[in-house]
Write a structure and sequence with these properties.
This protein is α/β, with parallel strands linked by helices. It is built from 16 helices and 26 strands.
């Protein structure tokens, strides 16, 4: 569900960042900076450093400040870590950089005075670490090197029961941290938190046993494989064992990874043989030369279909060479081994530097079906090459059923599906409720959601493209809840890893008649701030009565890895289940009011 936009957020940039206030440009010499000339264009040439940022800010807030309010033409935003007091911002030319420095230096934001100045390009980390290896004893480059099994499936050495125990314990730690944050940041809740801890073994709410994945091996329905060379220089299709910024380029075999299905492994072997015999070279992140870079494989557990997307740097290929490449790819993947692997759909992705307003790389359909289909809870979903779809389909059924169970909707319930993607959660809720209203910022996802509703004959779902920050109140008015007829409203929130923007949280808090919220998190550590904001007392901004965390449960969507999904049920307190407004003193009351649209 995460989308890279024109102002890209690069937390794992290929060039390592170091604060460099007022660096001497004459230092930009040697191999570490050779990439500046080799790549033709890089926004590293037009970079600034922004310091003095407030302690708490969201990436979405920052992007809106820079791109919407200040109308700066950013090309890339590079953060060191969430909440960092300084960041790097890259532009496409010197004029844009100078305009940004003039606008940002001394600008007041959230009570802080910002400072902006030119920053030199980052050195190439791979070259730097090679120099370290050649000048020091031993092999510094190999200190962090791990096997591909340890990198991709770090828990595979444990039995599955042991994995579940570890994940249950880790989610308990997250909930304990949530409770500590409530206790420390909201003094008025301390008595409540202490009572909850006594009731729930030190946790701020009830925590049910983790739900296991029905399938532990071969469960992934999508993988993005790198194309490169191994330590011996042999062309490979597989996974890197580390990041470029840590000095790793080698691609290793995925043959022994437990979570990858056999059809994907067969596809990888077939395409690796093709790449090894092809006249077109593999792409090198070090030299920026070569063509084959990535192989994305999607599969359906329901139908056995396999979709292949070949990611290529075209460089300066002629039209004839491009056509030769595409024809040879189709010939390879439609051979007998390709048929045995189940390949039914082939696409060609042109990997290139994205322009403003461009969210994805161009993808061309080459052969077979344009989509594949999979099923969740008896519903059929169309999956396009770039669509978001839970990577463990059997476990997604468990996750969505958990969300339905904790929400407990009735035929008089309207569901708000926030960050709905292709509509999977909302459509699974549809048979249990009066109506579903979904919103997502990705237009293609909304088109897929509408298609999926039509394909499954579901008529009580409506999906809208746009930013949830702006549309939640409109969706609530569209729902037209009638409390006197015992109608209710429940929000299902399944945001990207970074969580919801504070504006979305504010609108959910201020929503009249919204008394229950189910928060599904793929990154529970990152969601804690959202959870705390849902429970804060009434204020000028958070006008509606606070929610209370009632119940949590973990679902293992990612066996053999440390990742876990967490579902939390929030409810308004019973005595607060009234239509809420804020009077002139910003005190919560029970008088009805019609919420005004956001301006």
């Amino acid at each position: 569900m995460e989308v890279e936009n024109d102002a890209a957020i690069a937390e794992e940039s290929p060039k390592e960042e170091v604060p460099n206030k007022h660096d001497d440009k004459s230092e930009m010499k040697g191999e570490e900076y050779a990439y500046l000339d080799a790549t033709g264009f890089t926004s590293e040439l037009f970079k600034i450093e922004l310091r003095g940022l407030p302690k708490y800010y969201g990436i979405g807030e920052l992007k809106k400040l820079l791109n919407v309010k200040m109308k700066l033409s950013t090309n890339k935003i590079k953060i060191m870590k969430p909440g960092s007091p300084f960041i790097f911002i890259c532009f496409r030319n010197q004029e844009d950089r100078e305009a940004a420095i003039k606008a940002l230096d001394g600008y007041k934001w959230k009570g802080k005075s910002l400072s902006a100045f030119e920053a030199k390009p980052a050195p190439d980390p791979l070259i730097r670490r090679r120099k370290e290896a050649s000048t020091a004893e031993g092999e510094p480059l190999n200190i962090k090197r791990r096997t591909v099994e340890a990198s991709a499936t770090s828990l595979a050495y444990l039995t599955y029961d042991e994995q579940l125990k570890q994940k249950q314990s880790e989610m308990e730690n997250v909930l304990q941290k949530f409770g500590k944050e409530l206790w420390s940041s909201i003094p008025t809740l301390r008595t409540f938190v202490e009572k909850q801890r006594l009731l729930h073994g030190g946790l701020p709410c009830a925590f049910e046993p983790i739900r296991p994945s029905p399938m532990q091996d071969g469960y992934r329905n999508k993988c993005e494989f790198s194309i490169g060379k191994d330590a011996l220089g042999v062309k490979r299709v597989g996974f890197r064992v580390g990041s470029y910024s840590n000095g790793f380029l080698e691609v290793e075999s995925i043959a022994h990874l437990k979570h990858i299905p056999e059809c994907m492994k067969q596809t990888v072997v077939l395409f690796e043989q093709f790449v090894q015999s092809s006249p077109f070279d593999v792409y090198s992140a070090e030299t920026y030369q070569g063509h084959f870079r990535q192989l994305t494989v999607r599969m359906s557990h329901a139908t056995g279909q396999v979709m292949v997307v070949v990611g290529v740097h075209l460089q300066s290929l002629s039209e004839e060479e491009k056509q030769t490449m595409k024809s040879s790819i189709v010939e390879c993947l439609t051979s007998e081994p390709g048929k045995q692997a189940g390949i039914s759909s082939i696409h060609f992705e042109v990997i290139q530097k994205r322009q403003q307003g461009q969210y994805t790389n161009p993808i061309e359909h080459l052969y077979g079906e344009t989509h594949i289909e999979d099923t969740i809870l008896g519903l059929t979903f169309r999956i396009s090459p770039a669509a978001f779809f839970q990577i463990n389909t059997p476990a997604a059924e468990v996750l969505y059923q958990c969300a339905i169970d904790v929400a407990a909707p009735s035929k008089s319930t309207s569901i708000l599906d926030i960050c709905c993607g292709t509509g999977t959660i909302g459509l699974c809720f549809a048979r249990h409720c009066k109506q579903v209203l979904g919103v997502d910022i990705v237009e293609q996802a909304i088109e897929d959601a509408k298609h999926n509703a039509q394909k499954n004959g579901i008529e009580n779902c409506s999906f809208f493209a746009g930013n949830s920050d702006d549309l939640i109140m409109s969706l609530i008015r569209h729902a037209n809840i009638m409390p006197d007829q015992h109608e209710s409203l429940i929000a299902i929130v399944d945001p990207p890893r970074a969580g919801l923007h504070i504006r979305s949280i504010t609108q959910l808090r201020n929503a009249r008649g919204l008394d229950k919220l189910v928060y599904v998190s793929c990154s529970p550590q990152s969601a804690i701030k959202n959870w705390v904001d849902l429970m804060r007392p009434c204020s000028k901004q958070l006008r509606g009565e606070p929610f209370v965390a009632k119940k949590a449960m973990a679902v293992d969507l990612f066996p053999h890895t440390p990742h876990t999904e967490l579902v939390i049920l929030f409810e308004r307190e019973k005595e607060s289940k009234q239509e809420l407004v804020v009077d002139s003193e910003n005190v919560c009351t029970d008088k009805p009011v019609d919420p005004q649209p956001e301006t």
